[in-house]
Amino acid sequence: MKLKDIYSSLCERKEKGKKSFAVLIDPDKVDHEKLERLIRLSLAAKVDYFLVGGSLVISNYLDECVQYIKRNCTIPVLLFPGSSSQVSKYADALLYLSLISGRNPELLIGQHVVSAPAIKKSGLEIMSTGYMVIDGGAPTTVSYISNATPLPADKNEIAMCTAMAGEMLGMKLIYMDAGSGAKIPITESMIELVSKNIEVPLIIGGGITEPEKAYLNCKAGADVIVVGNAIEKDESLIIEIASAVHSVPEKIVS
Question: Residue 41: inside a domain, yes or no?
Answer without folding.
Answer: yes
